[in-house]
Amino acid sequence: MKKTFLLASLLLLLVVLLTLKQGSHPQWGAYQKEYFAEQASKLQVELGTINDEAEKIQRQQDIVNYQNRQPEIVNLVLPNGKVERCQTCHLGLEEISKSHPSNTVGCAVCHGGNPLSLDETTAHAQMFGGGHPGSLEVAALSCGGTAGQGMSCHTGNQEPAKNEVDLVKTSIMSTKAGELSVVRIMLGLDKTKEVDGLVKGQVAALYPNPLQGRPLENGFEKDCLSQCHQSGGNIPLPTNHSQQETVQGNGCEVCHVLTNPTHTYMGEDTTIKANNTDHGMVHRLTTQIPYTQCNQCHNQGSHDPLKMEFSVRPDMTKVITDWTAGYTTWTDRLSDYYLPGEVFARCEVSLDCIDCHTRQDVMGDNKLHTSQYDAVHLQCLDCHGTKDKLPLTKKVESLNDLAFEEQITNPQFPALKIGDELLMTTQGEELPFLRQSEDQWTQTSRVTGKTFKIPLVLGSQCKQVADEQGADSCHKCHARTAQHP
Hints:
33% of the residues lie in helices and 7% in strands. By secondary structure, the protein is α+β, with helices and mostly antiparallel strands.
């Protein structure tokens, strides 16, 4: 009995000693010291480039301040009175976006977890999506949650178009329903492109027995249906990728968090640098989505519907890391944009994907489309009109118009005002980045801010056929290829 009591006492003492040791040397303190040292080193490098004496003295003082700074617990007090300590470890983490300020919404509303804990394991327990809150299986809790002021975020709004979390689950990029329907028709399993039994919000990868036990079924599920950037499938990596790990797509993040080719973090947070793969370049959301982001999934290779194999494109090794550096040349964009042999119009290379595709094209319209043709709302005539008619227009009459929400995409875009006339698609979606100026319609790039003039078909020499208004029809004349730009 005494021996048991002695062993229990020794064990308790050991636990207490370990706890005291951990408390005197907390991990968060080590993270902060590492951050202070990194910042001092960066300022030291900058010091050698400064000529102004007053600025040099200030920079030297900043270096000393970082060298003398001691770790401390960071308490973020939100407007609703809640306290979060996430920034105690994540010191230097980038502000996520202007519309999601951390001092107002905090971290836990998007990430979940236990924001009062200073222990990594406890703090990260029950995080939404295991650190990827944009994953579609948890997006209703994160992106679709409720802000501190009780305001609904991206679901639960009266206006359906603002419920992106609900809509995106019907997007053809989420469901992969188009691939499923095409292959089933090709194998004679269906006579139409409608996939019996596939329901809204269900990704095609979860569809039971998509090829009904045929020999190629496993390959189709693995190489086609599972390669989906919005439903957790693997993103194709360049053939020269130095590391062999896979990178998963995580729903909303894949579009709205910009990444580099190796999916490594390049920001200031030392805790992320310690395990920096499968991350965006920085901790920041954006709606200025360049074509290079889209290219991480699109134009990366091709699916062989007969062999059920995906072949990575061998010449797709360049993704512009810093898209804010300036407008890339048309030739550069041409080499990046399309797979060899594909046909496209010149405007499709000059513009970025989001300059043409509407929000419903990309994020869904609450309908379960089983073909890309049906899912895409925009047609060439929406911007250029026809031989007989000008494009459709709409006048902005209310501050609640969705066009005002779209406008925040690019601060370079001219301020939208009540009474402004916008172009509108035949599906009824407005195109707020297309404006009329001095009898000339122009389009402003959502990514670069560059302005393009829009030529109209009416009054031109275009040989347009009234019944042929798809992009493929226009490509018959307005054709470019990588070999013949």
